[in-house]
Amino acid sequence: MNSKFIKLFSPIAINKTMLKNRIVSTPLGMNDISELEGPGYVIKGSVAVEAPNAMWGPIPYAFRGKAADELHEWIIKAHAKGMKAGVELIHCGNQARAYDKPYVFGPSTTTNDEGYHVKAMDEDDMQLVIDAYAKAAKDAVILGVDILFLHFAHGWLPAEFLSPLHNHRIDEYGGSLKKRAKFPLRILQAVRKAVGPNYPIDMRISAVEHVEGSITFEDTLAFIGLAKEYIDAVQISCGLDKGFQYKGNVKMSTTIFERRLLNVEYASMVKQAYPDLIVGVVGGIETPAEAEEIIENKKIDLVAIGRALLADPEWARKALENREDEIRPCVRCLQCYHISTEYKNIGCTVNPRFHHHAYIPKQIQKNICMKKVVVIGGGPAGISAAIAANKKGNHVILFEKENQLGGMLRYITQEHYKEDMKRYYNWLLKEVGKYDIDIRLNTEATPEMIQSIKPDYLILAVGSKPKIPPIKGCNLLHVHNCLDGIDNYNQLGKNIVIVGGGSIGSEIALGAAEIDKKNVTLIEMSDRIASNGNMLYRVSMQQHMDQCQNLKIFKNSQCKEISENFVIINTKDGLKEIPYDDVIIASGMEPKTELAQSFFGITAETCIIGDSNSVRLIQEANLEGTLAGLRTE
User: Fold this and answer.
1) Average pLDDT of 400-424?
2) d(CA 383, CA 621)
3) Of 63, 114, 306, 328, which is least packed with CB atoms within 10 Å of its CB?
4) DSSP E strands: which ranges in 461-557?
């Protein structure tokens, strides 16, 4: 097959190992490669070397006993899919947890974020870790690993020695770059000696760490020059994985507020400096067209893709077959990242099967007898339910009172920072059109109408509506609910007051201030902005808000009244009058509970999903809708 992405699907060798294409599946801890189709090289993440407190807990050494057998099975699975198997060797250094010693290792004495004592490593400690890397490298070769992937990025132990942010030593391992590089180079030298000259070694490194006082790109570039005699390839990333209030983490795994492809220019400069080195890049690469352009115009050798392969594990296969328009887009929500969700709601906004394989089969078995399924509401929950029910072989009728599908997506995709979500919305509309679903737009369902259809299953996805608080003045001409404010955003004046600092209000506020340079005041009753968003989403948003001098935020404050000219708020410092041209009430959404409940009693098999049950994330709406559709049997 001739793919139009010629560069992306051209082979390339790392040392003596040939890859069938230029696509690397990054070391995501939760990536189930049984779902993957098409990358040339896949990396098993976070394989700790056998040294004291190398990780966040006592994890069995990957190259011994049952763990070795499981890793070998993973390698075979990768090979069965035509992918080369890489293993990421890691030591977490001062960000680890103390589980077999009363301290963790680091370049300098300190206390880490979790309260563990960090011991400044001495020569014996360094040699112990160096030997552990060499042993893990040898064991990886014996087990059948194709490529070693050394994690020298994101604030782990080798990176800690390289970065002045962590390394405050005044001996031969601190100060100048040459001294800071000494220990990491000893690791590389030992690994190369352990595996021999013909074995491929790849190394990930942060171009910059995006925290004040950390390593400069000039130092990173110089270190790569020192390291290149030991490695065959380098993958350019950025940021930190833990610590420093996660300031660098939101660059390492970008949110919607960060630009895509943020490491490409750095990687291009590395390739220009060291043309004989295989250079890869990671960070916000979402589409095959972007990947092709990176390789062709920026002269970078490999593109490393992570979350986009969770959103659609067949990303590479579809690109190869020129079906890129069928790729389910990643929306960079970070719900798949355990740190971001604080382990509370891990999943994928657009791919409900991710992390839920036990409940959502890849191949859906059709019913023996066709059922009649009615879905009311054409938002993400309703669309997901209709598609799943149709895949079960059922006759599905989908009612939507508006003239187009999408629900809340019709509004939020109009906001700033929503390019990824727009791509998903367009994909979703195209996807639902592929199925034999009777879609009835401009049709407001009533209980009598549904009763006449006599459905076997009734799925209620009627959504939510803006919550309007009992504030005097909410009915004035220039006061808008959040959806009307989005819909009529281009008609809003220069001075905007937003009442409510949830994700909708906060996103409108940031976009208006940062991009459109309006004067914005955001009023939030609690002490947290965008509390319904995940942790890294909030950190990234706050970073951008802090840069906006034209954005004033009043937390722990309450709107008391809206007059013709002022919004009156009660703050910790007393009452304040805020002048405005327009006010947006963004006090949240509330489910259309009464409407949903009015349809009960028509059929015993009735369920409420999505926002009509309680206000949900799109991730939860898609999951609930899919599960509801699969129950129609």
Assistant:
1) 97
2) 10
3) 114
4) 464-466, 479-481, 495-499, 519-523, 551-554
pLDDT tens digits, 14-52 = 999 999 999 999 998 655 788 899 999 999 999 999 999
| Percent of the chain whose predicted confidence (pLDDT) is above 90 | 94
Amino acid letter for position 462: V
For residue 361, which amino acid is it? P
C-alpha span between 152 and 92 (Å, rounded): 10
- What SS3 class is residue 390? helix
Separation CA 470–CA 560 (nearest Å): 9
Question: Is pLDDT at 156 greater than 70 in this prediction?
Answer: yes
Q: How many angstroms separate the CA atoms of 207 and 159, rounded?
A: 11
pLDDT at position 491: 96
Displacement of CA 426 from its chain's centroid (Å): 20
| Mode of pairing for the β-strands spanning 464-466 and 589-591 | antiparallel
- The β-bridge relationship of strands 582-585 and 302-305 is unpaired
Buried b (16+ CB within 10 A) or exposed e, 349-377: bbbbbbbeeeebeeebeeeeeebbbbbbb
Nearest-CA neighbor of 164 among 113, 216, 125?
216
Is the pLDDT at 294 greater than 70, yes or no?
yes
Q: Do the beta carbons of residue 107 and residue 182 sit within 8 Å?
A: no
* DSSP labels, 221-262: HHHHHHHTTT-SEEEEE-SBSSSGGGTTHHHHTT-TTS-SST
Per the document, the length of the chain is 633
3-state secondary structure of 319: helix
Q: Whole-angstrom Cα distance, residue 362 to residue 358?
A: 10
| CA 113 – CA 153 distance, rounded (Å) | 18
- Where do the DSSP E strands lie in 326-427? 372-376, 395-399
Handedness of CA 522, 526, 527, 529 (dihedral sign): negative
Closest CA to 629 of 434, 311, 366: 366
Please check whether residue 29 is in contact with residue 306, taking contact to mean a CB–CB distance below 8 angstroms: no
Exposed e or buried b per residue across 109-148, where buried means at least 16 C-beta atoms within 10 angstroms of its C-beta: eeebeeebebbbbeeebbebbbebbbbbbbbbbebebbbb
Whether 206 shows a pLDDT value over 70: the answer reads yes
Q: What number of H helices and E strands is found in the chain?
A: 21, 28
Radius of gyration in angstroms for the set of CA atoms belonging to the chain, rounded to a whole number = 27
Can you give the pTM of this predicted structure? 0.95
CA gap 39, 204 in Å, rounded: 18
DSSP code, position 609: -
CA dist., res. 242 & res. 155, Å (int): 7
Closest CA to 88 of 235, 263, 258: 235
* Alpha-carbon torsion angle 61, 66, 67, 68, nearest 10: 90
Residue tagged 């999903």 (tokens): 609
Dihedral Cα 601, 605, 610, 611, nearest 10 deg: 10
Counting Cα atoms < 13 Å in the Cβ hemisphere of 463 gives 21
Q: Is 348 left (phi over 0), alpha (psi -120 to 50) or beta?
A: beta
Question: What does the pLDDT look like over 82-123, one tens digit per residue?
Answer: 999 999 999 999 999 999 899 999 999 999 989 999 999 999
Compute the distance between CA of residue 339 and CA of residue 79 in angstroms, rounded to an integer.
30
Whether residue 115 contacts residue 97, with contact meaning beta carbons closer than 8 Å, is answered with no
Return d(Cα 355, Cα 594) in angstroms, integer: 33
Tokens of 31: 């990536």
Q: Where are the alpha helices (DSSP H) in 144-181?
A: 157-162, 177-180
Instruction: Name 22's Cβ contacts closer than 8 Å, sequence gap at least 6.
Output: 7, 8, 9, 10, 12, 40, 291, 295, 301, 302, 303
